[in-house]
Amino acid sequence: MSLRRTHVALIAAAVLAAAAIVVGVGLAPRLAGSGPDAPAQPAADFAPRWAAPAPLPAEDPDRDRPGTSTRPDPAWVSAVAGAAGIPERALAAYAGAALAKHAERPDCALGWNTLAAIGWVESRHGSHGGSSIAADGTVSPPIVGVALDGGSTALIADSDGGTLDGDAEFDRAIGPMQFIPQSWRNWAVDASADGVADPHNIDDAALAAANYLCRATPTLGDEQSWRTGIAAYNGDPAYLDAVATAAAQYSAAAERTGRNGD
């Protein structure tokens, strides 16, 4: 994110010319997952310029837990997760955050597919390095990026005494959406309603990202505005390409299930 407003630090999206893209970020996994349990890899022969917001699912009619983030229909989650290659618990967080944001700011036009694409590029939906998402949304082991020490990254001195990222010298990106500590302080939200705003909880992190994106641009419902919003999160052209590709393919996968917006 822009250094103008204490940033969300992001994972580099790809490798160009055999060198890691340098965008001042924490982790740098390859776009292709590794191992037999890696999430499906969004790929395309060309990168779309943007991804229109996918239709929102219905809300869970049996939702009985409190929380800022709305719970999507579990039947939709099951069908679309299988088609898109997104873990169900991660997709529920992305769709829940998009539903909650739509209720507050329908003009923002934030699609769950955009949040899912960012989650894919940032942390492979909370699975980077062997991590996984528990039923309560907590990602463990915690995903913590490399030190932002000015070497192959931006230089961002410690802002939290190491409380969130374990590093008292430099900041590190944390959680499934890769916030840096100073940015998390600005955008922290307790979407899971467990009493703690936790960057390692995918519900909290997804809604915080949604809040940031809808503040960065008035709407994500057209190409230029969408690109402005994603660029505010990470301005590297390869990052925009990676997010656009994944978001477009997630929307197409949902449409193939016949439950897109169901």
Question: Which spans of ≥5 residues are poorly predicted at pLDDT below 50?
Answer: 1-39
Shape designation = globular
Q: N-to-C terminal Cα separation, in Å?
A: 33 Å
Helical content band: 25-40%
Number of strands: 4
Largest sheet: 2 strands, antiparallel
Beta-strand share of residues: under 5%
The radius of gyration over CA amounts to 17 Å
By secondary-structure content and strand pairing, the structural class works out as: mainly alpha
Number of discrete helical segments: 7
Q: Which series of helices and strands comes N to C? A: EEHHHEEHHHH
Question: Could you walk me through the main structural features you see in this protein, from its secondary elements to its overall organization?
Answer:
- This protein is mainly alpha-helical.
- It has a domain at 73-142 and 176-256.
- Helices cover 35% and strands 3% of the residues.
- The strands form two sheets. A two-stranded antiparallel sheet has the order 1-2. A two-stranded antiparallel sheet has the order 3-4.
- Helix 1 (74-84) crosses helix 2 (88-104), helix 1 (74-84) packs across helix 7 (237-256) and helix 2 (88-104) crosses helix 5 (202-216).
- The longest helix is centred in the last third of the chain and has 20 residues, at 237-256.
- The radius of gyration is 17 Å and the shape is globular.
- The model is unreliable at 1-39 (pLDDT under 50).
- Residues 173-215 form the Transglycosylase SLT domain.
- Pfam families: SLT_2.
- One of its GO terms (molecular function) is peptidoglycan lytic transglycosylase activity.
- This is Membrane-bound lytic murein transglycosylase B.
